[in-house]
Amino acid sequence: MAKIAYILLCHKDPAAIIAQARQLTATGDCITIHFDKSAKASDYAALHTELGDNPNVAFAHKRIKCGWGEWSLVRATLNAVETAIEAFPRATHFYMLSGDCMAIKTAEYASQYLDTHDCDFIESYDFFESNWIKTGMKEDRLIYRHFFNERTQSTLFYKSLELQQKFGLTRDVPHDIQVQIGSQWWCLRRQTIEAILDFTKKRRDVMRFFATTWIPDETFFQTLVRHLIPKTEINCRTLTFLMFSDYGMPVIFHNDHYDLLLNQDFLFARKISPDAKALKSRLGALYAATGIDFQISNEGRSLFSFLTQRGRYGRRFTQRFWETEATLGRERKLLIISCKKWHVAKRLVEQIRAQTDCPAIEYVFHEEDTPLPDLGGLQNTLTKRTRHRRALLRLLFDYYERDQMIFCLDPSSIDLVQDFAADNNHTRLLRIDCEFSDDYLSGHAKRVGLMSESSSETTMQNLLPTIRNDFHNEIDLLKDIKLDVHSAIYETANETENAAAIAAFLDVSTDVAHEIARTPYLFTD
């Protein structure tokens, strides 16, 4: 049965690397890590502390500083591969990964797939004849020598290239080598890796050539595999699902891409967004699962192309994920504070924040300027927030990384409370029942446009009872909604009574509930 040794090049986020290594080795596979020498020493030490006693984890015997487009990336890969060959003698396949990659199939599926397909998986297209390179330099990558990094030493990079072009300082490709190009995310058999390592020791001329080419990680392994292995034993594809935009930028996958990724005919996917924590959690658990039957449709790239074209024509994409995923989450607790006097609810929320660590948001569906994080534009207007209310709350749950959250609603928002209560989350409601003087009701009527400063006393006296009755009717309608917890605090109640209601609502201790209940000037207008 196939046993995979993963080759991981990385330079940051040790916590994510630790999690990735543990997920991939939990089922018996192996991983060799090359952690960039330019990264923090404390981060590298953390990796050793957490993974050093794992027999399925090895660290590259020599670390080097890597730069995008440089030979250093290939050298680091070779160092990791050499370590993996020695550390894992039972490994049958070697799979190149980055920290942005995650498995989109189970380990069981991956092993069976590699057992069934006895070949090397690597993109390798003719460098000069193919159109793999869409933009930027092509032949110049090879025929000139590149000693500087285009991104960090751009002036020197282009000046060196200019001088070589001016004086005709070109060079030939090694005579027996046909340069190939393709993705650097390959999966190679053990005998192929051993042949490559043996070749690197014998052919120093080829090594010197690639050491001064530009972006050799897209040509080195691709060329050597095609040079050393019969064509019939090479599958010219990568097992890692990745897509690029028309601008050459990698497409990033987010929480709502889970089902799409599982349907692709690939074992891994990149790039997974660092913020897609729910997706990472689900994919991490998936790798160790067994007995899963995957329905392969492989429509990812065609869908992306189709939807991108629609955007060019000015048409809207297919439904956003917030229009199709209609649940907040079965384990999440939604705590709603309902109060007609918004300033009273805000005082209570401020005290709750001081006494607990539960995220608490004010009148998010009523006040445009309610402080909110950037949620991709969904937070911009009240109309968007209300229309996509469940999506908004899902994003806020993800942002705060909590399964419990408080927000305020006006009692008139019966439809919102009903909608949240109908979801499969746990919905709790705390009513704040205030006393309403005639002056307050009169001010309310003027604020909402029912009356003006010039309205007669008679009009006011006729209108106020109706407004008061409306307020009471809103409370009655809230009482009719079936909720997990429905508590109420009253302006006329004592501290002990209100503390009991708060404790039931927040699920906090009596002492904390009393601290919240005695909020200074809570009901003061």
Summarize the structure.
The protein is α/β, with parallel strands linked by helices and 525 residues long. Helix content is 43%, strand content 13%. The longest helix is centred in the C-terminal third of the chain and has 24 residues, at 457-480.
Could you characterize the architecture of this molecule?
The protein is an alpha/beta fold and 525 residues long. It is 43% helix and 13% strand. The protein contains 21 helices and 17 strands. A five-stranded mixed sheet has the order 3-2-1-4-9, sandwiched between helices. A five-stranded parallel sheet has the order 14-15-13-16-17, sandwiched between helices. Helix 14 (342-355) packs antiparallel against helix 21. The longest helix is centred in the C-terminal third of the chain and has 24 residues, at 457-480. The protein is elongated, with a radius of gyration of 31 Å. The model is unreliable at 311-325 (pLDDT under 50).
